[in-house]
Design brief:
The protein is built from one helix and seven strands, in the order ββαβββββ. It is mostly beta strands. The strands form three sheets. A three-stranded mixed β-sheet has the order 1-2-7, with helices on one face. The chain has a two-stranded antiparallel sheet with strand order 3-4. It has a two-stranded antiparallel ribbon with strand order 5-6. The chain binds zinc ion.
Amino acid sequence: MLWFTFRQNNSGGFYIGPKYVIVEAKSSVSANALAEENDVYFNGCSKGIDCNCCGDRWSRAWQNDGEEKPMIYGEAIDPENPFYQDSYGAVVPSEEIKIVRMSEE
Ligand SMILES: [Zn+2]
């Protein structure tokens, strides 16, 4: 299983919902589909939702983006208690990180 991180671009100067959506999936194709069920949309500019100068709010994952662990900027994140702090001390709290796990079958 792989983990794909979707990072929100603040298109128009604001965020909507979680800044990160991190999806567990077998492939980027299923990760993109799962992300779209969880607050993520693609092609926001061409749909007229996002600001054209800022670019799309969300971008599709590619197969090469898949990681063995959930990651933000190359750091592994605990999916049970997601949290990220960069080297300058800036924190992404768990409320801004949405984890989407494969359903157990
Ligand atoms: Zn803009």
